[in-house]
Structures are given as C-alpha cells and as structure tokens.
Amino acid sequence: MSTPPTPQDQQHPHPEPLWRPDPARAAASRLVDFQRWAAAHHGAPAAPLAPTATDTEAATRYADLHRWSTDDLTRFWTAVTEYFDVRFHTPPTAVLAEPATMPGAKWFPGATLNYAEHALRAAEDPANADRPALLHLDERTTEPTATTWSELRRQVGSLAAALRTLGVRPGDRVSAYLPNVPQAAVALLATAAVGATWTSCAPDFGARSVLDRLQQIEPTVLFAVDGYHYGGKDHDRTGVVAELRRELPTLRTVIHVPLLGTPAPEGTLRYDDLVSSDVEPAFEPVPFDHPLWVLYSSGTTGLPKAIVQSQGGILVEHLKQAALHLDLGPDDRFLWYTSTGWMMWNFLLAGLLTGSTVVTYDGSPGHPDTGALWSVAARTRATVLGTSAAYVIASRKADLHPGRDLDLSAVRCLGTTGSPLPPDGFQWIYDEVEPDLWLASVSGGTDVCSCFVGGVPTLPVHLGEIQAPCLGAAVESWDADGHPHTDTVGELVVTKPLPSMPTGFWNDPDGHRYHDSYFDTYPGTWRHGDWITATSRGTVVIHGRSDSTLNRQGVRMGSADIYEVVERLPEIAESLVIGLEEPDGGYWMPLFVVLAPGAELDEDLTARIRTSLRTELSPRHVPDEVITVAGLPHTLTGKRLEVPVKRLLGGTPLTRAVNPGSVDNLDHLRFFERLATTRKQP
C-alpha cells in the first residue's frame, strides 16, 4: 500500500480568497433554496445565509449540509427526488436496498422511470416552445444555430419511433461515431426514450480504438458521420466507418449523418429521414438501475473498461450536480468544451435536465488561434463555461487577454477539469478573464460521470483549491492505514455509495474487474486513485494520480506538483516526469519537456528548471535529467501517459506497455521505446 507524496505546503498559504460570492446571488441560488426546502421537509440542517455571513460561517453552513447529505443517504436522496419532482412511473420500495454496501449498492429498488422524459420536461411548458434547447457552433460558422425545445422534442419523438420500427428494444445497444453536434444529443435522448443503452466514440478515434470499445458491447445500431471539420480541415471518416461495419457483425442498422455532405452509403439510412416526422415521444419506463449508457476508461493497458451507468443513477446525480453545484437553471447557457468520447459530453447534456440551453461546439479550441474557445463563449453568450486546466494554461502561455478583448460579460461561472488546475491558472483567470467570476474547479471521473469535489455557489474561491466535496459524496483523504486526516496528502476515497457509481462493467459477470478497479486497496471503500489534501477549512487540493507516484529516497511525490512549477516557465509547453526503479537498486527520475516555439534547452533553462523545483518544492523534486522531446503521448481524451512511459523505460515492449489504440500519437511513444534501448547499451 502506498504512502502519500510530499508536495508544496498546503497549510493555507493564502488565507484571503480570490473571490467571494455576491451575497444576494448566493442567497438566491438553487442550493440555498434546496437546503431551506429540505430543512422543512426532510430534517436538513437549517441555517440562514445572512448577507453579512463571514467565510467561516458560509463554510460551516455548507459543511453541515454536506455532513447531513452523507450521514443520512435515505433522507438526502429522497429530498433530491422530491425537490426536483423525479417522475417515478412505479414508486420505489426504498432508497437503498439493504445491505447498502460497496460494491453492489442497489438504489431505489422497484422504481421505474425514464431519463429522456426528464431531459425534455422543459418542452412541456408552452412558454419554452421557441426558446433554444441547443445552440450549435462549429469552426465554419460565426453565429450559432438554435434547436428550440419544441423542435428537440419533435426530433427525439420521431427518431425514437424510427428506432422502435427498426426493432430496437430496451437493453439493445445503440452506438455512435459522432462529434459534438445536435444530432448526437438527439440520438442519445431517443435511445434513452426507447430504453436502449447508448455508447459513443468521437470521430477522431481510429478504427482500432472504436472497435476495442464497441466490440465489447455488440451494438445493433450505429450512428456514423461521414467526417468532421477540425483545425481548419475536413477529415474524411468514410473508410473508418466501412471498417466498423465489417468488424461489428451485430449491427443491424447504420444511420448516416452527412456532416461533410456525402451521400448515404449503400445499406445505410439517412439520419434526416428518421427525424422528419412529427411524433410525440413515448418514454419507456425502465428500472432505476437499467443501463443508460456505457462509458470507457482510457484503456492504456488492455481493453478499455466498459463502465455501465444507470438511467436513474445518472438522472438524480446530474440533477443534483447541475442544479445545486453549478446553479444551472432555465436562464443559463451551458457550454463545456468536450467531445463525445469524454464523459463531460454526457454531463453537458445534464443542462437539459435543469431547463438550461446547452451549447455544443464542434471544432478545435485552438483554431484559428488559442483564443477560439473564449470567442465561442462570447458569441453564444454562455453563462457557465467549462474547459480544461490545460486550455487555461495554454491561454496564459499565449498571453491572451479574453476579458479585455472579448465580451464575456454573460459568463458568471467558469468550470475546469481534466487535470489539476495549478495556482497560476487560478490567478490568471482572475487577472485576465474577470475578477468577479465564480471559478468552479471540479474533479471526478468517467467512473461516476460526475464530480466528487467541485463548485459551491455560496462559498469563496481560494487559490489552487477546489471549493468543497459535493453533496452526497462521502469524500475523505486517507493515509496508508485507512485513517482519515486533514491538511495532509492522502488517497481520495469515497466511504459511502453514490447513485451514479457503475452498476458494473460490461462482460464482467462476477464483478471481479469492477472490484479490483476501486475496492481492492480498502475493502468496502472506493479508492479513486488520486492524491488529495482535504483542508481544515473544507476545501480540497488535487495532486494528481496516485498510481503514477514518484518515490525518491522513500519519499513519495505527486507529478502534478512538478508540472505546475515547470510549466510556469514560458519556454516549457508541456512536461512529463517519471520515476524508475533500476535493477541495481538505483532510482532514475527524468523530466521530459516539450519546448515552446523558439525555445532552446540550454544550460540556463536547465538551471532555472532545477532551481525552481528546488526552491518551490524540495531538492527531492529536482530531476536527474532534463530531456527534450518533440511531443508527449496522451490518451485519446488528452491525459499524459505516465504509467505506460514508465513501463517502456523499464524495458516492457510497446505492445505490452500500452494499448496502441488508446494513444493519440504513437511516434511520441516510440521515442521512449528507443530511449530504453539506448540506455541498456554499454
């Protein structure tokens, strides 16, 4: 069992927050309204949020609510379903079946419902008929295209009826090879309405990557694009789609989505024909734990895990997360930069559950320049904008001034995820985007399609710290012996079940792989694989993945802390550090850097890297070597491949160290294979 790293001191070095919520705005939030209602109906702690409340008082009020939400799961999740008026076609016999253990917790036994019915509820109000449910932009358009609530409901009804006519039944798998376009949202909702199970891959995935995923679940339907536009270029995918059709023998129907305008191939159906009728949607009542979709792990070693999440579990978790933690409502426009191959696309559609307008963008966030995503937010008047920590840092390095150069006055909340947002990223946002902006940095995972820790609209934002654990998520930081602690780095664990935890993995009938993924280290407790600090003021700091921890002289260190220091230097575009135990008992810790254009790794830059790490972290954080590389390998969703690189440098052949179909650029990975061979030579 591992011991935690020793990153920078997190003992509240910055006592004053970067931002405090406006008292009137905080008091009007859905979170405050929910607590007031839950106190009256379900025994939640009642504490008025006074306009003059101090930071400590606001933190105490939220901590009391969070404690209630995790101490009394039955009351809390009952309150969520009643507050949001979840429509059970058949009522549940309980909230949690006994025993409520992990893995295997069974939520709302006996209940039936339908996720799509809730996603389209706003369309039932005639006042919303002409209000946009979806706004779409791509690289070639300057103004967004709107799909109204009434039109979205009509298209979903038409497509769901077509799927039923094609023989799709509850439990069948419907797959998609589509970008982040309105057609993908319609197809997911139609699939859920039928009670079938959705799964999607982004069209930048190659055939092998898609087949590694879809062959596991044996889909009967494939929505397939002819190509997509990205980085100023058209990317034809007809050859990939043809290969998918050959290699997926269970397919009965292929539905052609012609984004590049090519005719439908022989034997396929035209998407536009299937959404042309005017049919009232019919929502199949399914059990609470009925599979809604299958998401996938990155699959860097072996096949990706096919993670199954339920209609009911996702519904109640996303209602809570979108409405209470992002404060989304009918007046919002919700934009999160994502692709259909990342769980954030599924979470983006949670905006529909709150009646918000969802903004979909198909294109590069960096084309024609690094500021493209900020421009999309300005043009769509997004109120809640989500991006990655990497994009924030790229914007800082590009010396962008989005708050000065664009009209971002509509943006009230900026969300970040994907990797830890370093303190420099926090500061840049408040310096260059907007000083009066709620920064909702969040951390969770594909595994739950939600957040363990994230934004709270009533709390201040502190430099480098996530605001708090999310309601219902019993998050703690544990030491190696399984004891919780504060203000000390430990393993992120979740001690009680969440509704959106997987019902299991596909083709894992005895649950062995599911158990080993999360519950092997601490039996009965979810270990997520992140190093965190739970601070005494209730905030959380994420230090990176615990399965790629550096161990030098018996002291463990988080790689994310090194990246934060190194990538602050303007000459460094990206970095990767690994620690390799050598056969002679030695330990080699190289730092690989991708240089910014025009930069050179000379003695001066190397010395500044070493000095920065020694000064800001510790002498143990200074690498043995600094090595330039042309580029770093990532997963298909953009995460650095630390563990496979370590395996390669340890002599593991590439085909065993990593699943090639999970990597964005194999040439970048082959560099490390060659380096391993070179190091072995005398």
UniProtKB/TrEMBL annotation:
GO terms for molecular function: acetoacetate-CoA ligase activity. Residues 62-119 form the Acetyl-coenzyme A synthetase N-terminal domain. Residues 11-22 have a biased composition (Basic and acidic residues). Signal peptide: none annotated. PANTHER family: ACETOACETYL-COA SYNTHETASE. Belongs to the ATP-dependent AMP-binding enzyme family. This is Acetoacetate--CoA ligase. It comes from Kitasatospora phosalacinea. The lineage of its organism: Bacteria, Bacillati, Actinomycetota, Actinomycetes, Kitasatosporales.
